[in-house]
């Protein structure tokens, strides 16, 4: 198939201004936020409505062209690194919030809607869309669904998959498929909407998503507890859960991260602390009060040197600023940053943290660890310089060992960043051969020409 | 044209700054251009990737990269929000210079920068000439922004409504000034800046009045010119360097505590770019630039932090009517100055009404407005809407370049809103008290 013909056909669908094919533009669609090698596609196309999107998928299907959908390109697993003979479909202009239904508490959106934009629009109506990935200011709902994105509120409110009520999408043949509904309950047909969650663009191209909304909690309370050791912090986490309290967020910062944040933002964090726990409870004012006091008590009981409770919004902001700046603070230490998300059962956090410290020593690399202690989803963050080939080799070995340790502890390779290209070669270790084969057969049946984001999730078919 | 390999070599000099970008994509959430186009090549991440590609010799010619690099407001919104601390604006400016030096400046730009801008006298001569003739080609709008527009359809003016060139530029009214230190005990030098000099001399006149009131000694040397940002934005490091050296010489002649400007863009250029981009070799001048840029302050910042403004608003109550404030990118994002202009507005007896997205770029971007007027206007229209939504009859902002853009947008929409510098509000307050 001649490149020029394809481009002409695409222009017929969306107009010349929405087709990009210059070498320079292609370079800008060759990467995402994962630390992987770039691949240059042949064209990028920006549909303005669902009809155009359908025609594009159909065209790719007819010409057997690989296609990769790109939202904000912030995924950390290579999910939007295209195929070198493929087309990139951009969802930037499919960014309308089609409906926010207050009576039935759901929202209908196009895939290119930015997560934070939706969250703000919903909040204006007193409703709540809880999934809040760290990238929410840029990430798109399509990307969130396709990666099953999590966030800080995972412990109490779950992750993206818990909010997807319905999805419509174009399949590999360009047919429009609908699944799920606008009702809380829905028992018809296969749960195809569920299948699309975490599918990373390998099973279909989504054009509309129905999301569940919940009432906005009336009150919240934040606190920060300082510990000498990370074990004390982990025991507190276990104790809070055992006490049947489910905080909205329960975040951990290790000593390396604390020092990085402090040198970056001078927030007055204790440099010798082994760990910080940042906790927020929310809900009904009475219950928030009660839970808050109990959590504070538990923190002290399990060895916190100090517990500071925010008394107003300013103080709350200051507490969370430390967590929000964790990534920035670490990023400034070295040119390359590899953000991992190996996740273990909550109770295994001390063991995992210990493993991370050993791995960091064994391979002589810097690892800062912070993350969602409440749900076992840690973010070991490796700081390096990819140009240093020898060190990069050690980093790759360390990452593999992190994967192995997480699996040994009964965990998963990725709590929220997805499989993409980065973790595809390791997936078998987690789920076994037959799961990989099943997934490949499923894909092959739905997409016989292997044009939907080839290479991702299941590796080569 | 030289071969691409040598260009790649030069771009490689930026490598240490380029690798800081972790491709996280956060800049997409704040880039005013990306908001309009949704194109990756328009946002910092894409442009940095292109420079990376140029350094790796991935392109046959530099034109495509250059064109995309120039599609940028240099507003620094990306840099201010970058988790990795990429010094985006400095990288882009250096890259523009490398490309311009490799390709050579276009003949038109050679005339503008090398002959006109870099020599303040010639520049003044031509702008005055233009000022005298502007009535022939343009007519005055009857609106609170006091703009003019083209009499006949003109490709150069488009459908712009721009504040007219002053009949007499500031340096004609006040060629030089050196007043003694008064009760404040402070001596300040004023860097006037082109736009204030030629379009808004009223702001500089107000500076004189306010400083007199507070007993601040003021030094305004003769022969000032442009801070150099237009030349730099076009990659002309030579003219820029010449201008910096010229001003270092001028301001050397007197002792003062602060160098103050009422133009956010000048302040940011002097503080951030004079020290980092100046390419003269003499270490003496470098040290002088460092010292001067260190004591350079935005006028709002200076007045609020170094001069005791009496809390007069509390005595007289708010009687000046509600005012909304637009944060110039070069003040808030480049220098972190956001509190002080607001304080000055309140100290002038006005109620401050925050607009939605006060710190969103107005879309001016210097020469960006010239070459991409369509997109620039779309960005500016968003600003105009936020201003109109506040129902204030005055919008204040600390940058004369933003004032031009905002006046244009308000004039087009027919909004009855005046555009002022916070300092003008303060001067008005002192006069009418
Ligand atoms: C600084 C930073 C912080 C982050 N924090 C978190 C975090 O806290 N939690 C978390 O879970 N993730 C996090 N991430 C990862 C990333 O932001 C998420 O994976 C996010 O969901 C990706 O959204 P996106 O719009 O960028 O999608 P993209 O990266 O553009 O795409 C992701 C995948 O979705 C597919 N896709 C996109 N749109 C469609 C569609 N319409 N139909 C079919 N497939 C589609 C793509 O093909 C790709 O496989 C973070 C990333 C960064 C850089
Ligand atoms: S925010 Fe900074 S690090 Fe992230 S992509 Fe943009 S420039 Fe790069
Ligand atoms: S300087 Fe402004 S316009 Fe240019 S890339 Fe950064 S945010 Fe976008």
Automatic annotation (TrEMBL), chain A:
GO terms for molecular function: FAD binding; oxidoreductase activity. Residues 37-216 form the FAD-binding PCMH-type domain. The keyword Flavoprotein applies. InterPro entries: FAD-bd_oxidored_4_C, FAD-bd_PCMH, FAD-bd_PCMH-like_sf, FAD-bd_PCMH_sub2, FAD-linked_Oxase-like_C, FAD-linked_OxidoTrans_Type4, Oxid_FAD_bind_N, Vanillyl_alc_oxidase_C-sub2. It comes from the Bacteria. Its cofactor is FAD. Coiled coil: none annotated. The keyword Flavoprotein applies. Keywords: FAD, Flavoprotein, Oxidoreductase. Belongs to the FAD-binding oxidoreductase/transferase type 4 family. This is Glycolate oxidase. It comes from Desulfocicer vacuolatum DSM 3385.
Automatic annotation (TrEMBL), chain B:
Its EC number is 1.1.99.14. It catalyses: glycolate + A = glyoxylate + AH2; (R)-lactate + A = pyruvate + AH2. It comes from Desulfocicer vacuolatum DSM 3385. Component of a complex that catalyzes the oxidation of glycolate to glyoxylate. Its cofactor is [4Fe-4S] cluster. The keyword Electron transport applies. Keywords: 4Fe-4S, Electron transport, Iron, Iron-sulfur, Metal-binding, Repeat, Transport. Binds 2 [4Fe-4S] clusters. This is Glycolate oxidase iron-sulfur subunit. PROSITE patterns: 4FE4S_FER_1, 4FE4S_FER_2. The keyword Repeat applies. It comes from the Bacteria. GO terms for molecular function: 4 iron, 4 sulfur cluster binding; glycolate dehydrogenase activity; metal ion binding. Residues 11-42, 63-92 form the 4Fe-4S ferredoxin-type domain.
């Amino acid at each position: 198939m001649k490149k020029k013909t394809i481009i002409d056909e695409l222009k017929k669908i969306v107009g010349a201004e929405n087709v990009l094919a210059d070498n320079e533009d292609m370079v800008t669609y060759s990467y995402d936020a994962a630390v992987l090698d770039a691949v240059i596609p042949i064209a990028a196309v920006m549909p303005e409505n669902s009809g155009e999107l359908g025609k594009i998928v159909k065209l790719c299907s007819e010409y057997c062209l690989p296609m990769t959908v790109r939202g904000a390109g912030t995924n950390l697993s290579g999910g939007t690194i295209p195929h070198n003979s493929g087309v990139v479909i951009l969802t930037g202009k499919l960014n309308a919030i089609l409906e926010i239904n207050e009576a039935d508490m759901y929202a209908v959106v196009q895939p290119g809607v930015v997560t934070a934009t939706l969250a703000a629009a919903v909040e204006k109506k007193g409703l709540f869309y809880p999934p809040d990935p760290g990238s929410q200011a840029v990430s798109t709902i399509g990307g969130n669904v396709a990666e099953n994105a999590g966030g800080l509120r995972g412990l109490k409110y779950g992750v993206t998959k818990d909010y997807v009520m319905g999805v419509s999408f174009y399949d590999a043949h360009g047919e429009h498929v609908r699944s799920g509904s606008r009702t809380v309950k829905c028992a018809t047909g296969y749960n195809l909407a569920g299948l699309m969650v975490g599918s990373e663009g390998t099973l279909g191209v989504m054009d509309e998503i129905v999301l569940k909304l919940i009432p906005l909690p009336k009150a919240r309370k934040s606190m920060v507890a300082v510990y000498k050791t990370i074990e004390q912090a982990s025991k507190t986490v276990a104790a809070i859960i055992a006490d049947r309290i489910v905080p909205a967020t329960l975040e951990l910062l290790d000593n390396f991260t604390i020092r990085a944040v402090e040198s970056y933002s001078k927030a007055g964090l204790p440099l010798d602390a082994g760990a910080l726990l940042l906790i927020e409870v929310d809900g009904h004012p009475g219950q928030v009060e009660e839970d808050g006091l109990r959590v504070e008590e538990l923190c002290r009981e399990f060895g916190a040197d100090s517990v500071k409770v925010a008394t107003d919004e300013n103080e709350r902001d200051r507490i969370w600023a430390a967590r929000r700046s964790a990534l920035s603070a670490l990023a400034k230490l070295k040119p390359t940053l590899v953000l991992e998300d190996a996740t273990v059962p909550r109770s295994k956090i001390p063991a995992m943290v210990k493993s991370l410290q050993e791995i960091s020593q064994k391979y002589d690399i810097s690892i800062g660890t912070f993350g969602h202690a409440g749900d076992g989803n840690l973010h070991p963050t490796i700081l390096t310089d990819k140009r240093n080939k020898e060190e990069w080799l050690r980093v790759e070995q360390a990452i593999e060992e992190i994967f192995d340790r997480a699996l040994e502890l009964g965990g998963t390779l990725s709590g929220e960043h997805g499989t993409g290209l980065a973790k595809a070669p390791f997936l078998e270790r987690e789920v076994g051969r037959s799961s990989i084969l099943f997934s490949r057969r499923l894909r092959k049946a739905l997409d016989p020409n292997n044009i939907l984001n080839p290479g991702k999730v299941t590796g080569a078919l | 044209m030289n071969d691409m390999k040598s260009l790649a070599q030069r771009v490689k000099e930026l490598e240490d700054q380029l690798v800081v970008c972790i491709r996280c994509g956060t800049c997409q959430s704040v880039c005013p251009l990306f908001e309009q186009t949704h194109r990756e090549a328009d946002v910092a991440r894409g442009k940095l990737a292109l420079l990376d590609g140029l350094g790796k010799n991935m392109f046959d010619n530099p034109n495509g990269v250059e064109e995309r690099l120039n599609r940028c407001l240099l507003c620094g919104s990306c840099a201010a929000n970058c988790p990795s601390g990429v010094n985006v604006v400095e990288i882009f400016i250096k890259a523009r210079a490398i490309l311009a030096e490799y390709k050579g400046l276009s003949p038109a730009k050679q005339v503008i920068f090398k002959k006109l801008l870099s020599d303040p006298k010639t520049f003044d001569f031509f702008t005055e000439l233009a000022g005298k003739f502007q009535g022939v080609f343009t007519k005055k709008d009857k609106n609170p922004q006091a703009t003019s527009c083209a009499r006949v359809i003109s490709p150069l003016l488009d459908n712009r409504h721009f504040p007219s060139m002053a009949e007499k530029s500031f340096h004609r009214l006040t060629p030089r000034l050196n007043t003694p230190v008064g009760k404040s005990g402070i001596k300040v030098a004023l860097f006037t800046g082109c736009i204030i000099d030629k379009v808004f001399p009223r702001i500089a006149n107000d500076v004189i009045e306010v400083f007199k009131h507070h007993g601040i000694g003021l030094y305004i040397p003769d022969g000032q010119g442009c801070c150099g940002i237009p030349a730099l934005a076009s990659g002309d490091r030579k003219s820029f360097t010449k201008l910096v050296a010229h001003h270092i010489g001028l301001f050397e002649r007197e002792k003062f505590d602060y160098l103050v400007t009422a133009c956010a863009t000048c302040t940011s250029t002097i503080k951030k770019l004079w020290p980092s981009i100046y390419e003269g070799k003499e270490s003496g001048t470098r040290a002088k630039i460092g010292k001067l840029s260190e004591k350079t302050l935005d006028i709002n910042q200076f007045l609020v932090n170094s001069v005791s403004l009496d809390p007069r608003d509390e005595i007289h109550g708010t009687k000046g009517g509600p005012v909304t404030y637009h944060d110039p990118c070069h003040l808030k994002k480049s220098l972190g100055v956001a509190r002080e202009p607001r304080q000055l507005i309140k100290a002038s007896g006005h109620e401050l009404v925050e607009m939605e997205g006060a710190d969103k770029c107005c879309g001016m971007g210097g020469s960006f407005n010239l070459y991409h007027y369509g997109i620039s206007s779309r960005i500016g229209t968003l600003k105009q809407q936020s201003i109109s939504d506040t129902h204030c009859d005055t919008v204040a902002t600390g940058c004369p370049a933003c004032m031009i853009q905002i006046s244009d947008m308000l004039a087009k929409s027919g909004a009855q809103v005046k555009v002022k510098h916070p300092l003008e509000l303060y001067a008005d307050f002192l006069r009418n008290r």
